[in-house]
Every structure is written in C-alpha cells, then in structure tokens.
Amino acid sequence: MLFAIFGDKNKREGKQLNRDAPLIIEQSKQIYAPSRLCFMAETIMELIERAHVRYGTGEIDLKRAHYDYRGLHKEARRNNDQVGLSAMTLVIIYIRAEIVGPSANPARAAIDAFTSEWRNVDGKKLKNFGATQN
Predict the structure, then answer these.
(1) Tens digits of residue pLDDT in 93-105
(2) Which element (helix H / strand E) includes 2?
C-alpha cells in the first residue's frame, strides 16, 4: 500500500545511482591526470574484489561491506584525499547498485567501463599513490 504512495525505493535509488556514477566519472576525467585515473581504477577494482571475497555477494553481505566502506570514505574525506574520495564514492555506488539489483545495472556498467578503460593503461599496475602524484 505504501509503495503506491511513495513508489518503489529500489527503483528510485537505482535511478539516482545511474545518474551519479557517470557524473562522478566524467568529473574525475576532467580533473585528474591519467596516472591518478589509473590509480583510481585500480583502487576501485581492488576494493570491489575485496568486498566480494571478504564479505560475500549476498544482500546482507553487501550491506556489511557498504557499512565498512562508508568508514573508508569518511577517512578519505577527512584526509582531503580527493582521488581516494572519488574512488571510494564509486565503490560505494557499485556496491549499492549490486544491492538494488537490475534497475541500477547502468551504474555498474559505467563503473566497469571506467575501470576497464583506465586499468593497466601502460601495462603496469600502479601500486601506491605516492608514486603517481604529479
């Protein structure tokens, strides 16, 4: 009954995630140097893989990962780490999109496209952020 009044929460959240992910990616491409984009893509993929291995892929597992990664997001904001903050934001969007389901597939696809475009651009992995600063 309440869904008729307020609408489906997952559908609304999916639309929001689908708007946010491409926007953050586009802003990152405009602001950061290619070396930082490579680092950002590597960080995103490593954190998503770590969430799946450490927590699992069930809805409750992803909610735990989302909760823990919000703490890392706050830490990046507190340290004024803009690249890390952008990466963590995209990781959180990805995990939330997995929780929401098919309505948020465009957000996940945008993040996957970004990481595949910028991951291992020069055939090498960028291990630490200090080596990539300009």
Answers:
(1) 999 999 999 999 9
(2) helix 2-6
The DSSP 8-state label assigned to residue 29 in this structure reads H
Q: State CA 26 to chain mean position distance.
A: 13
Q: Which two tokens stand for residue 33?
A: 């140097």
Instruction: Report the alpha-carbon distance of residue 113 to residue 128 in Å, rounded.
Output: 22
pLDDT tens digits along 1-34:
445 555 567 788 889 999 999 999 999 999 999 9
Residue with tokens 């990962």: 65
- Dig out the tokens for 21 from the structure: 């992910």
Residues 6+ apart with CB under 8 A from 122: 38
Q: How many residues does the chain have?
A: 134
Radius of gyration of the chain (CA): 15
Contact 78, 52 (CB under 8 A): no
Q: How many Cα atoms occupy the beta-carbon half-sphere of 126 within 13 Å?
A: 23
DSSP string, 41-83: HHHHHHHHHHHHHHT-SSHHHHHHHHHHHHHHHHHHHHTT-HH
